[in-house]
Automatic annotation (TrEMBL):
Organism field: Paractinoplanes globisporus
Signal peptide: none
Protein name as catalogued: Transposase
Comp. bias intervals (Polar residues): 157-168
InterPro entries according to UniProt: Transpos_IS110, Transposase_20
Pfam families: Transposase_20 (PF02371)
Domain of life where this protein originates: Bacteria
Residue ranges annotated for the Transposase IS116/IS110/IS902 C-terminal domain, each copy included: 29-111
Region annotation Disordered: where it falls in the sequence: 148-194
C-alpha cells in the first residue's frame, strides 16, 4: 500500500510539473499573482478563453460571480455575494483570497482595512474577491495585449495576412508582413486604469 501511495504521489508530482510547463508555454503571467498556481491559471485560461469578450472589469466580475448583489432593506444598505456566475472561476478567486489572507500580502492588508472600517468578515471577503477579480482581469488583458503586440508567430511584425502564409500568394517584390486589420485591436476600458 505504501508503494502504491508513493507511485500515485510521483504521478501527481509529474502531472503538476507538466501542467506548470504547459501554462508557462502560453505566455501568461497569471502565476505571478499571489495565490494562483498552475491549476488556477489553467482553469482561468480555459474558462475565460478570450478575455477581450468582456468590455470591462465589471462585466468580468458579473460573469464570475464576484460582483456584489444589493441586499438593502429600508435604511440598512448591504451587499451580499452572488451565487450566480461561473462557479469554477469563483472558486479560483476564493482560493486566491484564502492564500492571500494567510500571508502578509496586499490582499491581507485590504481585508484588514475593510474589517477596521466596520465590515463583517463575510463582507470583507466579498470585497477582497471583487478586488482580486479586477486584478486577474487586468493581468489577463495585459497578457492579451502583449500577445497581440508580438503577433501570431511570436515576433513583432508577423501577420497571418502575410503573402507567405496565404493560400494565394500576393505578387510583389516585398516579403514583409502586411499590416493587421483595424478591427483586430483589443477593447480596453478606460475604467481599468490603476
Amino acid at each position: 500500500m505504501i508503494a502504491d501511495l508513493e507511485r500515485v504521489y510521483q504521478r501527481s508530482k509529474q502531472a503538476d510539473k507538466e501542467l506548470k510547463d504547459l501554462v508557462a508555454a502560453t505566455g501568461t503571467t497569471l502565476m505571478d499573482l499571489p495565490g494562483i498556481g498552475p491549476s488556477g491559471a489553467a482553469r482561468l485560461l480555459v474558462e475565460v478563453g478570450d478575455v477581450t469578450r468582456f468590455p470591462d472589469r465589471g462585466h468580468f466580475a458579473s460573469w464570475n460571480g464576484t460582483a456584489p448583489i444589493d441586499a438593502s432593506s429600508g435604511d440598512q444598505v448591504r451587499h451580499r455575494l452572488s451565487r450566480a456566475g461561473n462557479r469554477q472561476i469563483n472558486r479560483v478567486l476564493h482560493i486566491m483570497a484564502t492564500v492571500q489572507l494567510r500571508r502578509p500580502t496586499e490582499g491581507r492588508a485590504y481585508f484588514d482595512r475593510k474589517k477596521a472600517a466596520g465590515k463583517t468578515s463575510m463582507e470583507a471577503m466579498r470585497a477582497l474577491k471583487r478586488r482580486l477579480s479586477d486584478i486577474v482581469y487586468r493581468q489577463m488583458i495585459n497578457d492579451a495585449t502583449a500577445a497581440l503586440a508580438t503577433g501570431p508567430g511570436g515576433h513583432r511584425g508577423t501577420s497571418t495576412n502575410s503573402s507567405v502564409t496565404s493560400s494565394h500568394p500576393h505578387a510583389g517584390s516585398s516579403e514583409k508582413s502586411l499590416p493587421e486589420p483595424a478591427d483586430n485591436k483589443l477593447r480596453v476600458s478606460t475604467s481599468m486604469a490603476p
